[in-house]
Amino acid sequence: MKTTDLVKVRNTLWAAADELRANSKLTPGQYRDPVLGLVFLAYAENRFETIRSEVEAKATARNPATIADYKAKSVLYVPDESRLSSLVNLPEGQDVGKATDEAIKAIEEANPELKDILPRGYQKLERSTLIELLRLFAPLPTQLEGDAFGFIYEDFLSNFAAQEGKGGGEYFTPYSIVRLIVEILQPFQGRVFDPACGSGGMFVQCAKFVERHHDSASRKLSVFGQEKTEDTVPLAKMNLALHGLSGDIRQANSYYEDPHNAVGAFDYVMANPPFNVDKIKKDQLAGDKRYPFGLPKTDNGNFLWIQQFYAALSPKGRAGFVMANSAGDAGHTEKEIRKQLIESGTVDVMVAISSNFFYTVTLPVTLWFLDKAKAGTPREDTVLFLDARPIFRQIDRAHRDFTADQIEFLANIVRLYRGEKVEISEGSETQLKENFPDNKYVDVPGLCKVATRAEIEAQGWSLNPGRYTGTAAVDERDVDFKGNLEALFEEFTQLSDEAEVLRSKVDAAVRGIIGA
Fold this sequence. Notes:
Elements: H1 3-22, H2 28-57, H3 67-71, H4 84-87, H5 96-110, H6 127-137, H7 140-143, H8 146-164, H9 166-169, H10 175-185, E1 190-194, H11 201-212, H12 217-220, E2 221-227, H13 233-242, E3 247-251, E4 266-271, H14 302-311, E5 313-324, H15 333-343, E6 347-353, E7 365-371, E8 382-387, E9 393-396, E10 399-401, H16 404-418, H17 429-435, E11 448-452, H18 453-458, H19 465-469, H20 481-514
Parallel strand pairs: 1-2, 1-4, 2-3, 4-5, 6-8
Antiparallel strand pairs: 5-7, 6-7, 8-11, 9-10
């Protein structure tokens, strides 16, 4: 199918499905999982039908085709009753919801690896809504190719996340942010880890990166994830399956649990963790090797996440993750942890992103990149700071993203800094020539600056790109009020403690003098 046709199909499908939801009594959250389950069934039927004639051609009366024959082709076996073409043609009056739940049960029984992945509860949907959904998705197996289903699944995840607002952002990181992280991280092969994996978008974009470089993601990548919310784990597993990936995704609270024995185990770490989380039980973290620089006193989880990402890296590993802006300038115990991280020589690239890229927060964020392989290279004592806040495409009043050429341009700045060959397939050549006419990295005021460790120390160990690139103006609406308030409260608490100690010393000294 042509790209233009696929775009039309994707838009038409969402518009139709969304209209059905709007005319039902369901919230986006209630509607999401059943719809994604039907996308999955359509994909499974498509893959099954693609090789069915080949498998059956080799079968005989004595040796009929078996489930194992399909598994040998890396295809799910789809029983007759699990095919959308069967469900949409059920006799009038039959319980469609019950039949759809039984279709899910049958495909899981034929393919045990799907156990607890696919959604249930189709009997709870209004009959008219379910029938229309089946009619919407039933033609897809014969109309689309395998990759198209992955795009449709991503579209639906993104659109549901937008409708659900803050709740949706907990399982979905916007595509353009993930793509930028992947392009800078460059996960060509190895073990990839996301301890806050949501619906698995980081893994999918890693796979697409490998495929863009003409290799097989299933052969080159092994993916491992953790996700706190039980209902989100199946979304990730379905997402992987729709993109031809398998992975080890566990339900776990990453602050306290480490089911993958992560320390030093991974070539790449990617994540968009929750920001500024409070009330973490730090007494349960004492002695945990995932926090090598110590526990922050402030009631904020940002530097617990940052240490987890650092600790999970193998000796040559790279990490790329989203973080609240306040972490770059936080003081006292958080500053001490940040100083140790910088002194380890691992911090490689910092990218400031403007506001309105995320569903969870409207505030700007910073992308952090760590690289343990920097040791012994010309970059060992430096950090590249990129201020990408002026770079974006305005989608609507409340949302922004990056275009493909903007992502390529930002990633190319990093490639020049690393001494690597640039890529221009997405159209970033003009921007490169304007800013780097000799095709070599140079500091560009307001855009990028390579700072030495001494310069960073002189800035109070700040990792705020604007301090280095010369971009001073900050919109008051873009201030991380909660993060800054927590930092000020920690400073106030520390000063109060010091004042109390000083008061006791003065009191003791005065009493000694007057003989009291």
